[in-house]
């Protein structure tokens, strides 16, 4: 039996990775709405008509990227193991105490922001410093829970969603101006159609 | 007149940015086919049925991203100014001589690779070191031309296109296996449809 | 003559690169003290006894790194050329208007922050968003001056200096506790001695 | 007792972090000499007189950086847990199989390379693709051992050490030419003196 199963080559199931991402965010107490609220906080100044629905949609699109899912799952895994005291010393201590010279959490966060380009760097740093909304709760050190990674990851997803919105809004603006469109815009339009279809099915 | 025009707020025209990217790559002597050949070199080992048409398409998709266009235009601009001797010393000398401790060209290249995630890091480093095909020509220091930036940018676009192919091939594989699909796959499918439509119009 | 000079191989003069960095920061209206004030703003909360002298020293040390000098010189060069209207369209427009989807300035800034590791990401984003002190002046769009790059670079140097301080303060703390020291600490100590010597000569 | 200990604030012990890094590299079967051999492979072409002793020294200096130690410890931790089957699915499968769309290992590797700047990007990609020496052994999938992270980390340490050598050699060259020196060079000299002293004690 073991032989037989050993011969089946490993094949990634993307849907499982996507589902695990949603599952673990939820299990660690973070809702998409809370992340969307960070996006709204960052973007309402630039787009007064921005709706919470749009923010949630953009958070979902960020979370549908494999690069993002990898970072979320890896970060939450390290938080969970630190909470259970199962990491090797001194890594256990550094993650447990969110040690100020330990920056691998920021590195993972940046891999998320980077997917939508460098324009999100600033937004990430800003929310990570101010810790509004859900980030304040994740940073509460009195709960016994450890969110050294998740804290940064949530801020990064919000920053990435903000970048995504900035790109999309520019495309919309140009379409309204009747400017001829670049392939990327057409893609965005068809993507939106596909997503809308998906959501209404 | 000047007053009037001064009052029109600046509005980015994405199509112009996209067109300038294509124009300048061409003007600096790089064809999409040459970049696609680097992609083929990097990927044929993993996907024996990969066609040049697919490689060209993926290069085009990478080049349709704003983040990529920004890096291409900025890099070529610095190459052109260095060629004309118009940069301030010692920056002029460093770019003119592709100085080994000057790494801003690599930094711009990485912003391109990053758009499709970290899986492209290795491919970029590999082609940049071996300098196959078009990269050998761009590195010829006897022509009087300066391609300190373009050299790295072309390798980065090829690496990014390779990452894009890896993501798409995985999605195709899962569709063939009849696995239920993540939103991203649906997006990819509709995107492909939109692009095909665009190309046949 | 041309032949003779052509035969002298290019040899980088690091001192010239360092001097040009200081010269251009000054010429573009930024003093080390102003950058040090940003550092103080970011760090006084953590180190109440931190002096301006220490902040200036750490800014100087950041600026002595080649990677940082490269980014500073390249960024200022692009600002100056944009101010003179000498860049090619549409790059000219994007840099002149600090266009929100143009992120190469952030990319260069990040190469500076990165030299002292990921712990500086947050500080960079924070000052870049709030624009305290010198950053407010650099962002004043009514002066005719263009500081699209310098603005981000100054914030990045301040963030990097903050990271440097965090590393040094930890080393000092451990030395006071009489803990045996890692090679890096010894290096830091001898480096400090060398620098002090340099400053008193 | 628990109360008392709970009141002692966490204080990082840098020496323990440094020692754990050396310990875990050794325990996972990687010697400094093997990493130094990769450095030699990458650099002998540029510096024919480079000695193995210098390569080992530069590897040690890279490993003395906290940012590097954090990445090494985090990466090895994930490898070890994957080997023990203790990660959550599907992360367990992705790391166990070194899945091609999982790139967090490359992200950690890049945080190491970045400490010495972007000039090391290419070297990292090159050794990671060719897998010479120790990297071939770490990639042997028939041993039951999992080195998904360590493989990339070792290549990154070698690339970073190569960058460090490039910077130091330039400083030496300028000193030999009798050029006046930048503060960084003086630092390097005193650092070298301190290190030599350390090694002979």
From TrEMBL, chains A, B, C, D:
Residue numbers spanned by region Disordered: 165-201
GO annotation terms (biological process): lipid metabolic process
Biased composition (Basic and acidic residues): 169-201
Alphabetical list of Gene3D superfamilies matching this protein: PgpA-like
Domain of life: Bacteria
A GO MF term: phosphatidylglycerophosphatase activity
Domain YutG/PgpA stretches: 34-166
Cited InterPro entries: PgpA-like_sf, YutG/PgpA
Protein name per the record: Phosphatidylglycerophosphatase A
Annotated source species: Paenibacillus sonchi
Top-level taxonomy: Bacteria, Bacillati, Bacillota, Bacilli, Bacillales
């Amino acid at each position: 039996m073991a032989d037989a199963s050993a011969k089946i080559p490993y094949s990634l199931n993307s849907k499982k990775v996507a589902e695990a991402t949603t599952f673990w965010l939820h299990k660690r107490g973070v809702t998409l709405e809370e992340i969307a609220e960070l996006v709204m906080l960052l973007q309402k100044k630039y787009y007064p008509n921005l709706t919470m629905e749009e923010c949630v949609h953009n958070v979902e699109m960020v979370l549908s990227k494999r690069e993002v899912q990898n970072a979320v799952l890896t970060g939450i895994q390290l938080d969970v193991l630190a909470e259970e005291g199962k990491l090797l010393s001194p890594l256990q201590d550094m993650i447990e105490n969110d040690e100020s010279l330990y920056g691998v959490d920021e590195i993972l966060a940046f891999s998320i922001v980077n997917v939508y380009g460098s324009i999100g760097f600033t937004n990430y740093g800003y929310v990570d410093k101010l810790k509004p909304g859900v980030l304040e709760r994740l940073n509460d050190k009195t709960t016994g829970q450890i969110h050294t990674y998740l804290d940064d990851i949530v801020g990064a997803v919000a920053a990435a969603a903000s970048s995504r919105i900035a790109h999309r809004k520019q495309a919309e603006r140009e379409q309204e101006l009747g400017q001829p469109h670049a392939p990327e815009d057409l893609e965005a339009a068809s993507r939106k159609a596909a997503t809308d279809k998906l959501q209404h099915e």
